[in-house]
Structure formats: structure tokens, C-alpha cells
Amino acid sequence: MEHVGRIICISNQKGGVGKTTTAINLAASLASAERRTLLVDMDPQGNAGSGLGLKRDVLHGTVYEALLNGRPAEELLHATELRYLQVIPATPDLTGAEVELVNQEGREFRLREALRPLKAAYDYIIIDCPPSLGLLTLNALIAADSVLIPLQCEYYALEGLSQLTHTIDLVKQGLNPELKMEGILLTMFDSRANIAHQVVEEVRGYFKEQVFEVLVPRNVRLSECPSFGKPIILYDIKSKGCESYLALGREIMRRETPPAAPKRRVA
């Protein structure tokens, strides 16, 4: 059987929920377990690449070129400090992509077509989406097998979530019927705050098994590591933030489908 990797899209139209932090550190956790992993940055801010140490002035290609110019994605791969992790970065040039793609045929499927040749080369492809529900996020949802939604443990946690789930349902109905919910990840958990515990209880009560077991805490080391261009596993492996993302990686890997046993030949 030909190996086909899983594509997980990380999306939430709200900013500041730990979306890019999750994309970087989940990808790094999977790579540390020797799973071949690719991180694709669909956010024009380009923080997924810079958070892994890439410098914008030395990039030899970005996701913009795959979407707009049809450049093969395998030409856009950038190595990281982790042996099993590569990145297709983004730059602010991607901001104009939504406008430039509007009148182009098949604009919603550009990312899916770009990643199709790479699926067999990776165990996981992680897509970091922008904080919006525009054409870039739509491309990611259509390319993905599943959606992971980071949700902060704060008062307005559920604000906008219904709009995102409605968009996911629309994509499933017409453009990507196989799209599944990977899960809801509760982030920025502060055990000292009553509201954080209330949000956890409310979200788990409503979404039940769709919520990951792990809680990502508010963690100083986790907020520091992007400025050093390192995932938390290379910055402070003993931190609570690192422990939580390693646990998230293990939860996701437990869902791996074992390869089918070879059929026995009948004499």
C-alpha cells in the first residue's frame, strides 16, 4: 500500500489563541518522534517560518509561489534544526494572494493541488492558517484531512467558534466531503483563574470527545522561544509548555491507522 500522510489544518479566525504556537510546536513534537513532518505557513505574517529560525532575506521560495505561479512545492522546502521537520514559509507577499486569486479558475484548490505530490513523502503535513475565514483559510480547509482548533481558556473563548464550525460544515458539504474534526485544543490555561476552569468545563461538556485531553498552559518559556527562532522542544524541553505539546503529539499519533496486514497467498 502506498503511504499517504495526514494533512492537519490549524484554524481559528480569532487572533491570539495560540494558533501559530500550536502549529510550530505540534510539528516539532511529531518530528521529534521521527515522523516525517512538513509545516506549511498560510499566514502572511510568516511567523511559522521565523519561529523555526528561517530568515526572510535568505528564503529560496514561499507558499505564494505555489499558489500564484504554480511552482512545485518540492522546490519550496526549507530545512530546520530538526531532522524530520521541513517548512514551506510565507511572507507578507501572501497578503495580496486573496485579491490576486479572485478571478483565477480553481482558486480554492490551489493549495490542495500543490501539496498532492508531497503527501506520500510525509507522515504529517501541518498547515498554519491566518486569523480569518478568507480564501487562504478556505484553501487550507480544502487541502486538509482534518481541522485542529486552538481555543483559549478565557472569557470570550467560544466567540466566533460557531462561525468557524459553520464554515467547516459548508466546506464538507461542497468542497471537501472527507474533512474531519481533529479536535479542539484548549490553550493558555491558567490553573489559578476560576474562569479558565469554567471554560474547560463548558467546552468539554459541549464538545465532549472532540476536545483533546491535554491542556496547554500559560507558559513564559513558550512565549519566549519564537524570539529565538526555536520550537519549545529545542528551547526548554523541561518546561510545562514543552510537556503539553509533546503530549498533544502523542494524542495525535495514537490516532494513526496501522498499515494493513499483507494478504496471505492461497495455494
Task: Let me know the average pLDDT.
Answer: 91
Structural class: alpha/beta
Which runs of at least 5 residues are low in confidence (pLDDT < 50)?
259-267
Task: Work out the helicity level.
Answer: 25-40%
Q: How many helix segments?
A: 11
Instruction: Compute the number of strand runs.
Output: 8
Give me the Rg, rounded.
18 Å
How would you write the strand order of the largest sheet? Answer: 3-4-2-5-1-6-7-8
Globally, the shape reads globular
Distance between the termini: 22 Å
Order of helices and strands: EHEHHEEHHEHEHEHEHHH
Largest sheet: 8 strands, mixed
Taken as a percent bin, the fraction of beta residues is 15-25%
Sum this structure up briefly.
Helix content is 36%, strand content 17%. It contains eleven helices and eight strands.
